[in-house]
Amino acid sequence: MTKSNCDTCVNYIYDEECECYICMVNLDEDEMYHFLSGTLWECPYYRLEDEYGVVRRQI
To answer: What percent of the chain has pLDDT over 70?
Structure first.
């Protein structure tokens, strides 16, 4: 398995209130452990932040 890169995921956003990045997916206990520990883990909710995806569909 490869580790998902949260920095490029649409679910990983900057929260101005706490001034940090957070994952908007409601992870279960095991998923949260892997997320916080940084172990090799493939996130099932990872979606690439593709700002050109909409444009490609319109063509």
So the answer is: 75
Q: Which residues are paired to 9 by β-bridges?
A: 48
Cross-strand partners of 29: none
Under 8 Å between Cβ of 34 and 41:
yes
**Average pLDDT rounded to a whole number, residues 5-23:** 89
For residue 14, what pLDDT is reported?
Answer: 93
Which sign, positive or negative, has the C-alpha torsion 47, 52, 58, 59?
A: negative
38 — alpha (psi -120 to 50), left (phi > 0) or beta? left
Domains of the chain, residue spans: 6-58
Look at the block and give the residue holding tokens 């101005």: 16
Instruction: Name the maximum alpha-carbon separation found in the chain.
Output: 42
**Over 60: is that where the pLDDT of 11 sits?**
yes
